[in-house]
Model the fold of this input.
Amino acid sequence: MTSDKNKSLLKRISGIVFPLALTAVFLWFAFRSIDFSVMFEHLSNISVFWAIVFIIVFLMSHYARALRWKVMISSVKPDASSMVLWGALMIGYGVNCVVPRLGELYRALFLGKWEGLSRTSMLGTIIVERVIDVAALIISVLISVWIYGGNLYDDVLWLKSSMYIVLFAVVFMLLFFILLIRYGENFYGVIVNFVSRFSARLAEKLGYIFKMLVQGFSSLRGTKNYIYTIFLSALIMFFYGLNSYIGFYMMSMDDIMPVTFGMGWILMTMSAFGVVLPTPGGTGSYHAITILVLVNIFGFAREISGAYALTTHLISYIMFLGAMFISFYLGNIRQKRIGKKSENFLSVFKINPDQ
Done:
């Protein structure tokens, strides 16, 4: 028993220490050779107008995410509130800014409580959503390679290997999901039974994961919903690229050289790899990749590139945390208004009979 407790404690500590250490390494790599006095001078000249536009587009991109989630769960909850979905989404992103990946769990838990939905099926839709996001990222990178003037694979040395890894993962997941949907329990029952020979606990966890995935996929039904999901995924990526493009004007980088939406799109796709890494809110990893792309691909100075990375990330970080607390507050007001109890970050873990 003591050994299990020690292992659990060690796992929790490593889950906190590793992301923080990774963040520190990336931040050092990003800002190690930057003249901070020049960078802060750039920071003092931020365009308020374009910062407001940046925030508006930022909010629109995540509202589009909420709408996509609404489409994905329409078969089980056709009248789900778009604002409640957006609120749960923002809570998830806000938590991710503190503890990487934990926000995905909280997002499903809060929506399950607020809309009376199965947490298992909601977690399944989030996993499905992440697969769609990865596929969208691959397509976005291919578009970047196409619109880039030179050879992007040569100028970003890690891009090709990363693409191979991501593409392999997507193909594997798609094949796995096809087998899972087509053969259901017969497919994953074989895997669970095999794993149970070595670890009953692991087999139980796998069984729960398979159940989540089946419920997640079953909630996305109908040709119309598939088309809506594809359209909204493209719209989300467009908003992300537009935000990166607006960032150039927010930092007055158009005074240094002409900027285009294509540059914003390329920057968005490259920096997305930094957000995928397990650092709190992409801190450090986003900065390192963004500065790398702005300096090595587009030829901006490190100081203005660092100012761009700091500003865009800080605005996003503040918006996520602010929206998380606002959504938490307004969500509980709604709960009380409809005669239900309010929820907090501990109570959402309590399982209701229908969840």
